Here is the input.
Amino acid sequence: MLLHTIDDVRRARKEWKGLTVGLVPTMGALHAGHLSLIKKAKETCDKVIVSVFVNPIQFGPSEDFDKYPRTIEKDYELCKDAGVDIVFAPSPKEMYGEGQRLSNDTLTYVCPPFFYVNKLCGKTRTGHFDGVCTVVLKLFNIAQPDYAFFGQKDAQQAVIIRKMVKDLNIPVEIIQCPIVREESGLALSSRNKYLSEDGKKDALVLSRILNNIKACYSKGITDISALKETAYSYLTDRHDLEYLEILDKNTLEEQEKANNDSIALIACRVENVRLIDNIYLGE
Ligand code: AMP
Here is the structure.
């Protein structure tokens, strides 16, 4: 079922008394990464709702909101084939009302703690995680899921959502799913569509850097600067590195030395497309 209004989702949700419901929030342009979340949701829950919403309030003014790929017909077919019960594809007006400027001057926002936001993607994407938390809490309130599924691909986002759920006592269990990659190693992303063939080759550097850091850690190197320095031989003038960090995977805290709880995270622009990836060092 493809639904566009909050009332319709609430009505359908009411019919599912006593059944477990899973929510998979997405921005659409679905690929195998999203489908892995849907598969996990199908395995875990009786009913599955996938939201497809390019959320205006999580994009900065100079980001790609207007050109972000929108492929709802194809997304709906993929969801139907995967056995999804409801695809919820609201308009921005349905989610945020008409006529108001989308800002925290006029809308209630959820603001995750500065400690989690003032690093990694949050450093350059001001307000991004406020927009993410706000829309995710709205989707939780609309769909009232027992479980919600997020990808490790957006590791900072997953940590922040867990923190929001804990701090605000939201009755939903967060399930994190591993990163799905192309055979080449490139992490699947809706934004890979922006890359040329050459760009896709250059983009492989992200996963190569991360794999190499993990290999060095496995050989016994735990000094974080030394691990990070191994990246530089991979980077060319076609790579614009935004960050490379090694942090605690649960808390995003800095560590004295890398350990089995460490995560290496990278953001890098290739052909001006901002790509992110990460790897757990301990598994
Ligand atoms: P997005 O549509 O990009 O907002 O992503 C929706 C959800 O899919 C988020 O929880 C992402 O972390 C997850 N996701 C995106 N790409 C991948 C991937 N390659 N592997 C696993 N999960 C992913």
User: Anything to note?
Assistant: Residues 26-27, 33-34, 36-37, 150-151, 153-154, 177, 179-180, 187-190 surround adenosine monophosphate (CB under 6 Å). Residues 157 and 173 are 15 Å apart (CA to CA).
